[in-house]
Protein backbone atom coordinates (compact mmCIF):
# COMPACT_ATOMS: atom_id res chain seq x y z
CA UNK A 1 0.00 0.00 0.00
CA UNK A 2 1.30 3.45 -0.94
CA UNK A 3 2.16 5.68 2.03
CA UNK A 4 -0.11 8.73 2.23
CA UNK A 5 0.80 10.12 5.65
CA UNK A 6 2.50 13.44 4.73
CA UNK A 7 5.03 13.26 7.57
CA UNK A 8 6.06 9.69 6.69
CA UNK A 9 6.46 10.89 3.09
CA UNK A 10 8.61 13.85 4.22
CA UNK A 11 10.77 11.46 6.28
CA UNK A 12 11.13 9.06 3.35
CA UNK A 13 12.22 11.93 1.08
CA UNK A 14 14.81 12.96 3.68
CA UNK A 15 16.04 9.35 4.02
CA UNK A 16 16.72 9.22 0.27
CA UNK A 17 18.67 12.47 0.52
CA UNK A 18 20.59 11.25 3.58
CA UNK A 19 21.84 8.30 1.50
CA UNK A 20 22.88 10.52 -1.41
CA UNK A 21 24.73 12.90 0.95
CA UNK A 22 26.00 10.13 3.20
CA UNK A 23 24.74 12.07 6.25
CA UNK A 24 26.05 10.98 9.64
CA UNK A 25 23.55 9.24 11.94
CA UNK A 26 23.06 12.12 14.44
CA UNK A 27 22.48 14.75 11.73
CA UNK A 28 20.03 12.47 9.95
CA UNK A 29 18.16 11.67 13.17
CA UNK A 30 17.89 15.32 14.21
CA UNK A 31 16.53 16.28 10.78
CA UNK A 32 13.96 13.45 10.79
CA UNK A 33 11.91 14.90 13.65
CA UNK A 34 10.68 18.33 14.73
CA UNK A 35 12.74 20.26 17.26
CA UNK A 36 9.60 21.39 19.15
CA UNK A 37 5.82 20.96 19.00
CA UNK A 38 3.21 23.09 20.75
CA UNK A 39 -0.31 21.65 21.16
CA UNK A 40 -3.03 24.04 22.29
CA UNK A 41 -6.73 23.87 23.18
CA UNK A 42 -8.62 27.01 22.23
CA UNK A 43 -11.95 27.85 23.86
CA UNK A 44 -13.88 30.19 21.56
CA UNK A 45 -17.21 31.89 22.26
CA UNK A 46 -19.48 31.16 19.27
CA UNK A 47 -22.17 33.53 17.98
CA UNK A 48 -24.96 31.37 19.51
CA UNK A 49 -23.48 31.87 23.01
CA UNK A 50 -21.95 28.37 23.28
CA UNK A 51 -18.22 27.77 23.77
CA UNK A 52 -16.43 25.50 21.33
CA UNK A 53 -12.96 24.13 22.03
CA UNK A 54 -10.67 23.92 18.98
CA UNK A 55 -7.37 22.07 18.79
CA UNK A 56 -4.33 23.84 17.37
CA UNK A 57 -0.67 23.06 16.74
CA UNK A 58 2.54 24.92 16.04
CA UNK A 59 5.52 22.83 14.96
CA UNK A 60 8.97 24.44 15.05
CA UNK A 61 10.90 21.97 12.96
CA UNK A 62 14.47 23.26 12.88
CA UNK A 63 16.02 26.65 13.66
CA UNK A 64 19.68 25.93 12.88
CA UNK A 65 19.72 28.62 10.18
CA UNK A 66 17.51 31.19 11.93
CA UNK A 67 14.08 31.79 13.48
CA UNK A 68 11.41 29.35 12.36
CA UNK A 69 8.99 30.54 9.69
CA UNK A 70 5.87 29.17 8.05
CA UNK A 71 2.15 29.54 7.58
CA UNK A 72 -0.93 28.64 9.61
CA UNK A 73 -3.71 26.48 8.18
CA UNK A 74 -7.31 26.53 9.29
CA UNK A 75 -8.72 23.24 7.97
CA UNK A 76 -11.28 20.66 9.17
CA UNK A 77 -8.96 17.75 8.27
CA UNK A 78 -5.81 19.23 9.82
CA UNK A 79 -3.59 16.69 11.60
CA UNK A 80 -0.37 16.94 13.56
CA UNK A 81 1.37 14.84 10.90
CA UNK A 82 0.35 17.24 8.12
CA UNK A 83 1.69 20.15 10.16
CA UNK A 84 4.93 18.25 10.89
CA UNK A 85 5.44 17.55 7.19
CA UNK A 86 4.68 21.14 6.23
CA UNK A 87 7.12 22.37 8.89
CA UNK A 88 9.85 20.06 7.56
CA UNK A 89 9.23 21.29 4.01
CA UNK A 90 9.43 24.90 5.28
CA UNK A 91 12.89 24.09 6.68
CA UNK A 92 14.09 22.86 3.28
CA UNK A 93 12.31 25.72 1.48
CA UNK A 94 13.97 28.49 3.49
CA UNK A 95 17.34 26.80 3.16
CA UNK A 96 16.99 26.25 -0.59
CA UNK A 97 16.21 29.94 -1.11
CA UNK A 98 19.16 30.81 1.13
CA UNK A 99 17.00 32.73 3.61
CA UNK A 100 18.38 33.17 7.16
CA UNK A 101 15.40 31.22 8.53
CA UNK A 102 14.40 27.82 9.82
CA UNK A 103 11.08 26.06 9.22
CA UNK A 104 7.81 25.88 11.12
CA UNK A 105 4.09 25.52 10.50
CA UNK A 106 0.83 25.88 12.38
CA UNK A 107 -2.64 24.48 12.08
CA UNK A 108 -6.03 24.67 13.73
CA UNK A 109 -8.71 22.00 13.21
CA UNK A 110 -11.77 24.04 12.21
CA UNK A 111 -14.03 24.73 9.24
CA UNK A 112 -13.72 28.43 8.38
CA UNK A 113 -16.45 28.07 5.74
CA UNK A 114 -18.94 27.49 8.57
CA UNK A 115 -17.69 30.28 10.84
CA UNK A 116 -18.68 33.95 10.98
CA UNK A 117 -16.05 36.71 10.77
CA UNK A 118 -16.48 37.31 14.51
CA UNK A 119 -15.88 33.64 15.32
CA UNK A 120 -12.83 33.56 13.05
CA UNK A 121 -11.42 36.66 14.74
CA UNK A 122 -11.90 35.17 18.23
CA UNK A 123 -10.30 31.89 17.10
CA UNK A 124 -7.31 33.70 15.53
CA UNK A 125 -6.78 35.75 18.69
CA UNK A 126 -7.15 32.68 20.94
CA UNK A 127 -4.52 30.83 18.93
CA UNK A 128 -2.02 33.68 19.27
CA UNK A 129 -2.73 34.07 23.03
CA UNK A 130 -1.98 30.36 23.43
CA UNK A 131 1.29 30.31 21.48
CA UNK A 132 2.56 33.85 22.16
CA UNK A 133 5.40 32.85 24.55
CA UNK A 134 6.86 30.67 21.78
CA UNK A 135 6.69 33.08 18.81
CA UNK A 136 8.11 36.52 18.02
CA UNK A 137 9.72 38.55 15.22
CA UNK A 138 13.11 36.94 15.91
CA UNK A 139 11.82 33.57 17.17
CA UNK A 140 9.03 32.10 15.05
CA UNK A 141 7.03 34.06 12.47
CA UNK A 142 3.70 32.67 11.19
CA UNK A 143 2.05 33.61 7.87
CA UNK A 144 -1.02 32.69 5.79
CA UNK A 145 -1.64 29.25 4.32
CA UNK A 146 -4.80 27.34 3.36
CA UNK A 147 -7.97 29.16 4.54
CA UNK A 148 -6.06 31.92 6.37
CA UNK A 149 -5.57 35.38 4.83
CA UNK A 150 -4.22 38.94 5.39
CA UNK A 151 -7.19 39.92 7.63
CA UNK A 152 -6.45 36.94 9.90
CA UNK A 153 -2.76 37.97 9.97
CA UNK A 154 -3.81 41.52 11.02
CA UNK A 155 -5.83 40.13 13.98
CA UNK A 156 -2.90 37.90 14.94
CA UNK A 157 -0.36 40.76 14.77
CA UNK A 158 -2.72 42.89 16.87
CA UNK A 159 -3.22 40.20 19.52
CA UNK A 160 0.52 39.60 19.82
CA UNK A 161 1.16 43.38 19.99
CA UNK A 162 -1.38 43.70 22.84
CA UNK A 163 0.38 40.91 24.77
CA UNK A 164 3.70 42.75 24.35
CA UNK A 165 2.30 46.21 25.15
CA UNK A 166 3.71 47.65 21.90
CA UNK A 167 3.30 47.28 18.15
CA UNK A 168 5.07 44.14 16.98
CA UNK A 169 3.89 43.88 13.38
CA UNK A 170 6.89 41.73 12.47
CA UNK A 171 5.52 38.72 14.39
CA UNK A 172 3.56 37.54 11.36
CA UNK A 173 3.87 38.19 7.62
CA UNK A 174 1.31 38.30 4.83
CA UNK A 175 -0.32 41.26 6.59
CA UNK A 176 -2.37 43.93 4.79
CA UNK A 177 -0.25 46.86 3.53
CA UNK A 178 -1.78 49.28 6.07
CA UNK A 179 -0.35 47.31 9.01
CA UNK A 180 3.18 46.50 7.88
CA UNK A 181 2.54 44.20 4.92
CA UNK A 182 4.88 44.09 1.94
CA UNK A 183 4.04 45.11 -1.59
CA UNK A 184 3.96 41.99 -3.75
CA UNK A 185 3.13 39.42 -1.01
CA UNK A 186 -0.37 38.80 -2.38
CA UNK A 187 0.70 37.10 -5.60
CA UNK A 188 4.23 36.13 -4.48
CA UNK A 189 3.68 32.36 -4.28
CA UNK A 190 2.30 32.16 -7.81
CA UNK A 191 4.72 34.73 -9.24
CA UNK A 192 7.74 32.93 -7.78
CA UNK A 193 6.45 29.62 -9.16
CA UNK A 194 5.99 31.10 -12.61
CA UNK A 195 9.54 32.45 -12.60
CA UNK A 196 10.65 28.83 -12.12
CA UNK A 197 8.31 27.69 -14.93
CA UNK A 198 9.93 30.32 -17.18
CA UNK A 199 13.40 28.97 -16.29
CA UNK A 200 12.28 25.36 -16.81
CA UNK A 201 10.80 26.21 -20.22
CA UNK A 202 14.12 27.83 -21.22
CA UNK A 203 16.07 24.79 -20.04
CA UNK A 204 13.75 22.33 -21.82
CA UNK A 205 13.21 24.40 -24.97
CA UNK A 206 9.43 24.79 -24.47
CA UNK A 207 7.67 27.79 -26.01
CA UNK A 208 5.32 29.26 -23.40
CA UNK A 209 3.34 31.47 -25.82
CA UNK A 210 -0.06 29.79 -26.01
CA UNK A 211 1.09 26.86 -23.84
CA UNK A 212 -1.92 25.07 -22.31
CA UNK A 213 -2.19 25.22 -18.53
CA UNK A 214 -4.42 23.35 -16.02
CA UNK A 215 -4.59 24.52 -12.41
CA UNK A 216 -6.01 22.57 -9.45
CA UNK A 217 -7.08 24.91 -6.63
CA UNK A 218 -8.30 28.49 -7.12
CA UNK A 219 -7.27 30.27 -3.92
CA UNK A 220 -4.30 32.53 -3.30
CA UNK A 221 -1.83 30.28 -5.16
CA UNK A 222 -4.11 29.01 -7.94
CA UNK A 223 -5.95 32.23 -8.82
CA UNK A 224 -2.78 34.31 -9.14
CA UNK A 225 -1.11 31.47 -11.05
CA UNK A 226 -3.93 31.70 -13.60
CA UNK A 227 -3.68 35.48 -13.85
CA UNK A 228 0.11 35.55 -14.18
CA UNK A 229 0.49 32.49 -16.44
CA UNK A 230 -1.74 34.36 -18.86
CA UNK A 231 -0.48 37.94 -18.44
CA UNK A 232 3.22 37.36 -17.68
CA UNK A 233 3.98 34.19 -19.69
CA UNK A 234 1.34 34.36 -22.44
CA UNK A 235 -0.10 30.91 -21.63
CA UNK A 236 -3.70 29.76 -22.12
CA UNK A 237 -5.60 28.54 -19.05
CA UNK A 238 -7.76 25.61 -20.19
CA UNK A 239 -8.87 24.24 -16.80
CA UNK A 240 -9.19 25.36 -13.19
CA UNK A 241 -10.84 23.81 -10.14
CA UNK A 242 -11.63 24.23 -6.46
CA UNK A 243 -12.89 21.95 -3.68
CA UNK A 244 -16.30 21.60 -5.39
CA UNK A 245 -14.98 20.54 -8.84
CA UNK A 246 -13.43 21.90 -12.01
CA UNK A 247 -14.16 23.65 -15.31
CA UNK A 248 -12.65 23.21 -18.78
CA UNK A 249 -12.63 25.33 -21.93
CA UNK A 250 -10.39 24.48 -24.87
CA UNK A 251 -10.54 28.15 -26.01
CA UNK A 252 -9.26 29.40 -22.65
CA UNK A 253 -10.73 30.55 -19.33
CA UNK A 254 -10.58 34.18 -18.18
CA UNK A 255 -9.28 34.05 -14.56
CA UNK A 256 -11.16 37.24 -13.64
CA UNK A 257 -14.46 35.80 -14.88
CA UNK A 258 -13.79 32.62 -12.90
CA UNK A 259 -13.00 34.68 -9.81
CA UNK A 260 -16.14 36.81 -10.14
CA UNK A 261 -18.25 33.64 -10.58
CA UNK A 262 -16.61 32.06 -7.50
CA UNK A 263 -17.29 35.28 -5.57
CA UNK A 264 -20.99 35.04 -6.45
CA UNK A 265 -21.58 31.28 -6.17
CA UNK A 266 -18.78 30.04 -3.89
CA UNK A 267 -17.15 27.98 -6.67
CA UNK A 268 -15.70 28.16 -10.18
CA UNK A 269 -18.05 25.31 -11.14
CA UNK A 270 -20.66 26.11 -13.83
CA UNK A 271 -18.95 29.23 -15.15
CA UNK A 272 -20.74 30.11 -18.40
CA UNK A 273 -19.06 28.74 -21.54
CA UNK A 274 -17.15 25.98 -19.72
CA UNK A 275 -17.76 22.27 -19.30
CA UNK A 276 -17.45 20.42 -15.99
CA UNK A 277 -14.42 18.33 -15.14
CA UNK A 278 -13.50 16.48 -11.96
CA UNK A 279 -10.41 17.33 -9.92
CA UNK A 280 -9.01 13.88 -10.84
CA UNK A 281 -9.56 14.30 -14.60
CA UNK A 282 -7.98 17.77 -14.53
CA UNK A 283 -4.67 16.21 -13.50
CA UNK A 284 -4.69 13.94 -16.55
CA UNK A 285 -5.51 16.58 -19.18
CA UNK A 286 -3.35 16.88 -22.28
CA UNK A 287 -1.69 20.16 -21.29
CA UNK A 288 1.83 21.60 -21.36
CA UNK A 289 1.85 22.74 -17.75
CA UNK A 290 -0.01 21.24 -14.81
CA UNK A 291 -0.16 23.31 -11.61
CA UNK A 292 -1.41 21.50 -8.49
CA UNK A 293 -2.29 24.42 -6.18
CA UNK A 294 -4.57 22.83 -3.58
CA UNK A 295 -3.66 20.03 -1.17
CA UNK A 296 -1.34 17.02 -0.62
CA UNK A 297 -1.24 13.59 -2.29
CA UNK A 298 -3.14 14.28 -5.49
CA UNK A 299 -0.56 12.73 -7.84
CA UNK A 300 -0.04 9.17 -6.64
CA UNK A 301 1.03 5.83 -8.10
CA UNK A 302 -2.59 5.42 -9.25
CA UNK A 303 -2.64 8.34 -11.68
CA UNK A 304 1.02 9.42 -12.22
CA UNK A 305 1.36 7.40 -15.42
CA UNK A 306 -1.62 9.30 -16.87
CA UNK A 307 -0.10 12.76 -16.34
CA UNK A 308 0.53 14.18 -19.83
CA UNK A 309 1.94 17.59 -18.91
CA UNK A 310 5.56 18.36 -19.82
CA UNK A 311 6.02 20.43 -16.65
CA UNK A 312 4.37 19.87 -13.26
CA UNK A 313 4.78 23.08 -11.25
CA UNK A 314 3.93 22.26 -7.64
CA UNK A 315 2.47 25.36 -6.03
CA UNK A 316 0.77 23.13 -3.44
CA UNK A 317 2.85 21.58 -0.69
CA UNK A 318 3.24 17.82 -1.02
CA UNK A 319 0.99 17.13 -4.04
CA UNK A 320 3.11 14.21 -5.30
CA UNK A 321 3.93 10.96 -3.49
CA UNK A 322 7.42 9.36 -3.76
CA UNK A 323 6.03 6.50 -5.91
CA UNK A 324 4.46 9.03 -8.27
CA UNK A 325 7.75 10.96 -8.38
CA UNK A 326 9.53 7.85 -9.70
CA UNK A 327 6.89 7.34 -12.40
CA UNK A 328 6.96 10.98 -13.52
CA UNK A 329 10.78 10.98 -13.67
CA UNK A 330 10.80 7.76 -15.72
CA UNK A 331 8.25 9.31 -18.10
CA UNK A 332 10.33 12.45 -18.59
CA UNK A 333 7.88 14.81 -16.86
CA UNK A 334 9.78 17.80 -15.48
CA UNK A 335 8.63 18.33 -11.87
CA UNK A 336 9.40 21.67 -10.23
CA UNK A 337 9.16 20.44 -6.65
CA UNK A 338 6.98 22.17 -4.07
CA UNK A 339 9.61 23.69 -1.82
CA UNK A 340 11.27 25.25 -4.86
CA UNK A 341 8.17 26.14 -6.90
CA UNK A 342 6.09 27.68 -4.09
CA UNK A 343 8.98 29.40 -2.28
CA UNK A 344 7.99 32.84 -3.60
CA UNK A 345 5.54 33.22 -0.71
CA UNK A 346 8.05 32.78 2.07
CA UNK A 347 10.69 34.73 0.15
CA UNK A 348 8.47 37.83 0.03
CA UNK A 349 7.47 37.09 3.65
CA UNK A 350 11.17 37.31 4.47
CA UNK A 351 11.30 40.63 2.57
CA UNK A 352 8.34 41.73 4.70
CA UNK A 353 10.27 40.82 7.88
CA UNK A 354 13.29 42.81 6.66
CA UNK A 355 11.08 45.85 5.91
CA UNK A 356 9.36 45.56 9.33
CA UNK A 357 12.73 45.51 11.12
CA UNK A 358 14.02 48.33 8.91
CA UNK A 359 10.81 50.44 9.13
CA UNK A 360 11.28 51.30 5.47
CA UNK A 361 9.18 49.90 2.66
CA UNK A 362 10.04 48.92 -0.92
CA UNK A 363 7.85 49.42 -3.97
CA UNK A 364 6.38 46.49 -5.88
CA UNK A 365 8.92 46.66 -8.71
CA UNK A 366 11.76 46.25 -6.21
CA UNK A 367 10.04 43.25 -4.58
CA UNK A 368 9.51 41.60 -7.99
CA UNK A 369 13.11 42.12 -9.01
CA UNK A 370 14.50 40.69 -5.77
CA UNK A 371 12.08 37.75 -5.91
CA UNK A 372 12.98 36.95 -9.52
CA UNK A 373 16.67 36.88 -8.65
CA UNK A 374 16.16 34.53 -5.67
CA UNK A 375 13.85 32.14 -7.55
CA UNK A 376 16.09 32.02 -10.64
CA UNK A 377 19.22 31.26 -8.62
CA UNK A 378 17.39 28.54 -6.66
CA UNK A 379 15.95 26.95 -9.81
CA UNK A 380 19.38 26.85 -11.46
CA UNK A 381 21.05 25.33 -8.40
CA UNK A 382 18.43 22.54 -8.31
CA UNK A 383 18.55 21.94 -12.06
CA UNK A 384 22.37 21.76 -12.09
CA UNK A 385 22.39 19.45 -9.05
CA UNK A 386 19.88 17.11 -10.70
CA UNK A 387 22.19 16.83 -13.72
CA UNK A 388 25.35 16.48 -11.61
CA UNK A 389 23.99 13.67 -9.40
CA UNK A 390 21.63 12.22 -12.07
CA UNK A 391 18.68 12.47 -9.69
CA UNK A 392 15.19 13.93 -10.03
CA UNK A 393 14.47 17.58 -9.29
CA UNK A 394 12.96 16.89 -5.84
CA UNK A 395 15.96 14.87 -4.70
CA UNK A 396 18.23 17.60 -6.09
CA UNK A 397 16.32 20.27 -4.13
CA UNK A 398 16.77 18.15 -0.99
CA UNK A 399 20.51 17.81 -1.63
CA UNK A 400 21.00 21.60 -1.91
CA UNK A 401 18.75 22.43 1.07
CA UNK A 402 19.71 19.69 3.52
CA UNK A 403 23.44 20.24 2.97
CA UNK A 404 23.06 23.85 4.18
CA UNK A 405 21.01 22.96 7.28
CA UNK A 406 23.45 20.15 8.15
CA UNK A 407 26.38 22.56 7.81
CA UNK A 408 24.68 25.09 10.13
CA UNK A 409 24.03 22.37 12.74
CA UNK A 410 27.65 21.23 12.54
CA UNK A 411 29.02 24.79 12.86
CA UNK A 412 26.78 25.40 15.88
CA UNK A 413 28.17 22.27 17.51
CA UNK A 414 24.87 20.36 17.61
CA UNK A 415 26.21 17.28 15.88
N1 LIG B 1 -0.55 31.10 0.38
C1 LIG B 1 0.77 30.94 0.30
O1 LIG B 1 1.54 31.90 0.40
C2 LIG B 1 1.36 29.59 0.07
C3 LIG B 1 0.57 28.49 -0.18
N2 LIG B 1 1.16 27.29 -0.46
C4 LIG B 1 0.39 26.09 -0.71
O2 LIG B 1 -0.50 26.30 -1.81
C5 LIG B 1 -1.65 25.46 -1.63
C6 LIG B 1 -2.89 26.31 -1.71
O3 LIG B 1 -2.83 27.31 -0.69
P1 LIG B 1 -3.55 28.71 -0.82
O4 LIG B 1 -3.83 29.02 -2.23
O5 LIG B 1 -2.80 29.66 0.01
O6 LIG B 1 -4.92 28.38 -0.05
P2 LIG B 1 -6.33 29.08 -0.22
O7 LIG B 1 -7.06 28.79 1.02
O8 LIG B 1 -6.20 30.48 -0.65
O9 LIG B 1 -6.99 28.26 -1.43
C7 LIG B 1 -7.12 26.88 -1.43
C8 LIG B 1 -7.84 26.47 -2.70
O10 LIG B 1 -7.80 25.06 -2.83
C9 LIG B 1 -9.11 24.59 -3.10
N3 LIG B 1 -9.26 23.25 -2.58
C10 LIG B 1 -9.38 22.84 -1.30
N4 LIG B 1 -9.54 21.51 -1.25
C11 LIG B 1 -9.48 21.08 -2.52
C12 LIG B 1 -9.59 19.81 -3.12
N5 LIG B 1 -9.73 18.71 -2.38
N6 LIG B 1 -9.48 19.73 -4.48
C13 LIG B 1 -9.32 20.84 -5.22
N7 LIG B 1 -9.22 22.07 -4.70
C14 LIG B 1 -9.31 22.18 -3.38
C15 LIG B 1 -10.02 25.59 -2.40
O11 LIG B 1 -11.33 25.53 -2.94
C16 LIG B 1 -9.30 26.88 -2.73
O12 LIG B 1 -9.65 27.31 -4.02
C17 LIG B 1 -1.46 24.75 -0.28
O13 LIG B 1 -0.85 23.51 -0.49
C18 LIG B 1 -0.51 25.69 0.45
O14 LIG B 1 0.20 25.05 1.48
C19 LIG B 1 2.53 27.17 -0.55
C20 LIG B 1 3.34 28.23 -0.32
C21 LIG B 1 2.83 29.51 0.07
O1 LIG C 1 5.08 33.12 4.01
C1 LIG C 1 5.49 32.31 4.81
O2 LIG C 1 6.15 32.59 5.80
C2 LIG C 1 5.19 30.83 4.68
C3 LIG C 1 4.25 30.46 3.59
C4 LIG C 1 4.00 28.99 3.71
O3 LIG C 1 3.36 28.56 4.65
C5 LIG C 1 4.59 28.05 2.76
O4 LIG C 1 5.50 28.44 2.02
O5 LIG C 1 4.18 26.88 2.73
TrEMBL record:
InterPro entries: Aminoacid_DH-like_N_sf, Glu/Leu/Phe/Val/Trp_DH, Glu/Leu/Phe/Val/Trp_DH_C, Glu/Leu/Phe/Val/Trp_DH_dimer, Glu/Leu/Phe/Val_DH_AS, Glu_DH, NAD(P)-bd_dom_sf, NAD_bind_Glu_DH. It comes from the Bacteria. The record marks 145 as: Important for catalysis. SMART domains: ELFV_dehydrog. SUPFAM superfamilies: Aminoacid dehydrogenase-like, N-terminal domain, NAD(P)-binding Rossmann-fold domains. The active site is at residue 105. It comes from Mahella australiensis (strain DSM 15567 / CIP 107919 / 50-1 BON). GO terms for biological process: L-glutamate catabolic process. Residues 182-413 form the Glutamate/phenylalanine/leucine/valine/L-tryptophan dehydrogenase C-terminal domain. This is Glutamate dehydrogenase. Substrate binds at residues 69, 93, 349. Pfam families: ELFV_dehydrog, ELFV_dehydrog_N. GO terms for molecular function: glutamate dehydrogenase (NAD+) activity; nucleotide binding. The keyword DNA damage does not apply. NAD(+) binds at residues 189, 220. Keywords: NAD, Nucleotide-binding, Oxidoreductase. Transmembrane segments: none annotated. Belongs to the Glu/Leu/Phe/Val dehydrogenases family.
Amino acid sequence: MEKLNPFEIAQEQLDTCAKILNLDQATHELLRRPMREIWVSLPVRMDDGSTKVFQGFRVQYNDAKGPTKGGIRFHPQETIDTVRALAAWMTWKCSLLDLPLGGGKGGVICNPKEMSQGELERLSRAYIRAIHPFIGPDKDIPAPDVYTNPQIMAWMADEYSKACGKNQFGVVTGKPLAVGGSAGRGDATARGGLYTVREAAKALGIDLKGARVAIQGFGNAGYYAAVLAQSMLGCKIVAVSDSRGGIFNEQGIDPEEAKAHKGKTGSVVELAGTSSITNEALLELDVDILIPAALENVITERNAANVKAKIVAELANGPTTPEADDILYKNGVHVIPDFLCNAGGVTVSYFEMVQNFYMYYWDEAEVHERLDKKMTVAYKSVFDTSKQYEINMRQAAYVVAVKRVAEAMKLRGWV
